């Protein structure tokens, strides 16, 4: 089941996002993330996603972004961050 | 400067941007535009979007984003401007203005779903998409970046395989480019490294916006350094850990790049050019060396790029393609004009300006006092005094010129009002604007908007006929509303005219009788009938509409105009249209006046009203009625108003033979003011009676004379309105 990212991923949304993704990694679940609803995403949440991807890779789990909205893709491209499947 | 103040500036800039866009639309409609016209519109929307993002106005940002996307396609030539598209971007502009207003007033953002859908549809039509794909390689990096916004969210989310295929195509190229930043950044390009401070995300800070700004200048984000990012378990999600390397075209000015980071406190920024690497940093110890990007343990790639399948990947994702050089000049030509324009203006707090104006006013008074003192000692002729007089006057004019603004700031709102009225009434209206660069004092500009809006609404709602009626009357289906501004003998005259049905005097009269405003047997001239529409509670609209209000409008219009020291006049011809003209003073702070004596008092008569001054010869004055008199001015008779009598002063001359008669132009035509003698003619600084005491009928204000005495300024219109002897509309309640 994919974890659906909320529409607004500003700095305030980063702590709960970290808690949620950390829990998923700890439960040894593969990280499947649906980013189609994202309307806004800032650096803070991008950092959490990068860290989550790294954590999944370190745990030998898979990481996949199943869908990205335009603002999400735009922000990721702008920041040149790697969220490709692993 | 706190955040609110900065935000205020943002909204001021929004207003300016919107006004500029409205001007550009006029050019589009007239098909008199070039690439720069569309660029101008794009830049305005882009700036609003940037500010909206910075201040967290998300709805505004989201809206401007789609708007900008469409404009960018037009700008880059990917879409061709058709009349339908022109209409769309104008309609989108109106909603943008609503969005800005909502953001500014913390109101509810307008429902933009339909408009957004239209913008998206227009931007992503199949035909357009094809053109976009083929045109993309020639487009500027800015355009490319923005095209990567191309809206098609549904197909993206639904078809993940396609997206992944696209990513597969692009990501490796990006990675290989990121491997060696210096090869991607041309030999002379700027290499910027940027690491926000750990607390950069506090208080809504968003370093990505700075990247966006660099990209707007033509820059390309080469890589993201994630080496400082702790593991998920120990990461503090509100601390900034990332750093970036960005290549910016060589022709971008260093200052422009630095200005991007102007408001970031202590973040590490290095700027180097090619191999020379002349580096300047704010915090060297944390600076990311240009080589750090390549040494980054976690090589990074531009993931999830061009989300729109319509834009068919590669050409559009060109930011990572290794051909940075050609687009650069395009960017330069787009970006360059902005700093020049900015450098020529400066924002000044209005309070400071008012203080300056006040001080200059005091200087004028002191100068007058000095002149008087010198003249008492027979030194009035000294040349230094004349010089001082000239300098003071010039200083005063220059100061007032700072406050002067073109009427354009008011007129630019009118096209939208007209568009809305067209929609509400089904009438077709062409707006002609003349003299929009005519300058007038800021106070006048600020306060004329409301009465002007009402006159425009009135012209369309009551003045113009429906297209069917017009055609039946042998007129073109499209009505014309003309708005003009011009300087006319020291005043500004603003005219709103239409080629509609004109005032139906019989109907106005009937309505006035019905409303009890005049008696059925009142004898009125055409002009007087026309003026009845300014009577409180008068409305001839068959049904009360939400356009022209509820009949409370025209009298309020007149009051507002009078409060500005202005007059309103009507000229109308039944069947061919009406024209309302507002005559307003250019400034409310200084007035050229004639200093006169009445009894033991000194008064100022504004020079703008004075036609001539006469000492009557025998037989020039003819008595009329009980105490009235008229003056024969070369064959035309002008009523005489003794100022002492009008203002209820004891003393003062009553006999015209011993007095001076000053012929003035007033609301009701010419009149002659009877005064004892003329003292002088000079500029005086108006001190408000309302602000310092209370409004007095017949007086427009006060001033301080050279000898320190206070003189009252006569309100010529009000003073002569009191004793009008010609037949006037007989008020029912007075009868």
From TrEMBL, chain A:
Pfam families: STAS_2 (PF13466). Signal peptide: none annotated. It comes from the Bacteria. Transmembrane segments: none annotated. Residues 1-86 form the STAS domain. SUPFAM superfamilies: SpoIIaa-like. This is STAS domain-containing protein.
From TrEMBL, chain B:
Keywords: ATP-binding, Chemotaxis, Kinase, Nucleotide-binding, Phosphoprotein, Transferase, Two-component regulatory system. The keyword Nucleotide-binding applies. It holds the Pfam family Hpt. Residues 590-725 form the CheW-like domain. InterPro entries: Bact_Chemotaxis_CheA, CheA-like_dim, CheA-like_homodim_sf, CheW-like_dom_sf, CheW-lke_dom, HATPase_C_sf, HATPase_dom, His_kinase_dom. Coiled coil: none annotated. The modification Phosphohistidine is found at residue 46. Gene3D superfamilies: Histidine kinase CheA-like, homodimeric domain, Histidine kinase-like ATPase, C-terminal domain, HPT domain, SH3 Domains. Involved in the transmission of sensory signals from the chemoreceptors to the flagellar motors. CheA is autophosphorylated; it can transfer its phosphate group to either CheB or CheY. This is Chemotaxis protein CheA.
């Amino acid at each position: 089941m994919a974890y659906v990212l909320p529409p607004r991923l500003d700095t305030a949304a980063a702590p709960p996002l970290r808690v949620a993704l950390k829990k998923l990694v700890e439960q040894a679940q593969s990280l499947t993330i649906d980013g189609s609803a994202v309307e806004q995403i800032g650096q803070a949440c991008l950092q959490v996603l990068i860290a989550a991807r790294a954590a999944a890779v370190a745990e030998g789990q898979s990481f996949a972004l199943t869908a990205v909205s335009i603002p999400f893709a735009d922000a990721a491209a702008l920041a040149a961050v790697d969220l490709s499947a692993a | 400067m706190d955040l609110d103040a900065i935000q205020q500036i943002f909204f001021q800039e929004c207003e300016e941007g919107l006004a500029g866009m409205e001007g550009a639309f006029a050019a589009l409609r007239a098909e008199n535009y070039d690439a720069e016209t569309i660029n101008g519109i794009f830049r305005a929307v882009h700036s609003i979007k940037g500010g909206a993002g910075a201040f967290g106005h998300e709805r505004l940002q989201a809206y401007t984003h789609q708007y900008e996307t469409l404009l960018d396609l037009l700008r880059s030539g990917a879409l061709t401007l058709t009349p339908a598209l022109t209409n769309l971007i104008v309609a989108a502009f109106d909603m943008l203005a609503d969005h800005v207003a909502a953001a500014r007033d913390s109101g509810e953002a307008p429902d933009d779903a339909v408009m957004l859908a239209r913008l998206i549809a227009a931007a992503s039509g199949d035909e357009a998409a094809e053109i976009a794909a083929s045109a993309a390689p020639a487009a500027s990096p800015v355009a490319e970046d923005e095209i990567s916004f191309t809206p098609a969210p549904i197909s993206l989310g639904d078809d993940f395989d396609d997206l992944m295929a696209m990513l597969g195509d692009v990501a490796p190229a990006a990675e290989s480019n990121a491997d060696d930043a210096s090869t991607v950044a041309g030999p002379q390009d700027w290499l910027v490294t940027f690491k926000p401070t750990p607390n950069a995300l506090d208080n809504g800070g968003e370093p990505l916006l700075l990247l966006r700004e660099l990209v707007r200048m033509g820059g390309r984000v080469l890589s993201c350094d994630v080496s400082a990012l702790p593991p998920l378990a120990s990461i503090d999600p509100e601390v900034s850990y990332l750093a970036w390397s960005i290549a910016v075209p060589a022709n971008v000015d260093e200052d422009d790049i630095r200005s991007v980071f102007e408001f970031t406190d202590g973040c590490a920024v290095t700027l180097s050019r090619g191999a020379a690497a002349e580096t300047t940093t704010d915090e060297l110890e944390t600076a990311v060396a240009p080589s750090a990007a390549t040494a980054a343990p976690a090589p990074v790639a531009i993931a999830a790029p061009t989300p729109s399948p319509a834009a068919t990947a590669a050409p559009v994702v060109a930011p990572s393609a290794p051909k940075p050089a050609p687009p650069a000049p395009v960017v330069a030509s787009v970006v360059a004009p902005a700093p020049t324009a900015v450098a020529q203006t400066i924002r000044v707090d209005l309070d400071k300006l008012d203080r300056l104006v006040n001080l200059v006013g005091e200087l004028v008074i002191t100068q007058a006092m000095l002149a008087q003192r010198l003249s008492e000692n027979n030194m009035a002729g000294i040349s230094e005094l004349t010089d001082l007089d000239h300098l003071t006057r010039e200083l005063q004019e220059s100061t007032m010129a700072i406050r002067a603004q073109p009427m354009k700031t008011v007129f630019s709102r009118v096209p939208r009002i007209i568009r809305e009225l067209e929609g509400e009434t089904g009438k077709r209206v062409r707006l002609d604007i003349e003299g929009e660069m005519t300058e007038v004092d800021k106070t006048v500009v600020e306060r004329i908007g409301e009465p002007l809006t009402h006159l425009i609404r009135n012209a369309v709602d009551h003045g113009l006929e429906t297209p069917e009626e017009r055609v039946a009357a042998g007129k073109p289906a499209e009505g014309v509303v003309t708005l003009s501004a011009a300087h006319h003998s020291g005043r500004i005259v603003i005219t709103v005219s239409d080629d509609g049905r004109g005032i139906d005097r019989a109907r106005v009269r009937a309505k006035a009788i019905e409303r009890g405003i005049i008696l059925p047997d009142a004898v009125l001239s055409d002009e007087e009938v026309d003026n009845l529409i300014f009577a409180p509670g008068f409305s001839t609209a068959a049904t009360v509409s939400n356009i022209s209000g509820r009949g409370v409008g025209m009298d309020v219009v007149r009051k507002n105009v009078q409060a500005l020291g202005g007059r309103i006049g009507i000229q109308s011809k039944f069947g061919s249209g009406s024209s309302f003209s507002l005559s307003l003073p250019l400034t409310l702070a200084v007035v050229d006046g004639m200093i006169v004596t009445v009894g033991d008092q000194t008064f100022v008569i504004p020079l703008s009203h004075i036609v001539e001054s006469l000492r009557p010869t025998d037989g020039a004055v003819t008595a009329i009625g009980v105490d009235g008199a008229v003056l024969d001015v070369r064959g035309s008779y002008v009523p005489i108003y003794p100022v002492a009598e009008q203002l209820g002063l004891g003393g003062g001359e009553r006999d015209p033979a011993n007095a001076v008669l000053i012929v003035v132009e007033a609301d009701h035509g010419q009149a002659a003011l009877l005064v004892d003698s003329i003292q002088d003619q000079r500029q005086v600084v108006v001190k408000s009676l309302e602000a310092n005491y209370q409004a007095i009928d017949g007086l427009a204000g006060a001033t301080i004379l050279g000898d320190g005495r206070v003189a009252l300024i006569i309100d010529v219109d009000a003073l002569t309105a009191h004793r009008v002897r010609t037949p006037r509309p007989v008020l029912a309640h007075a009868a």
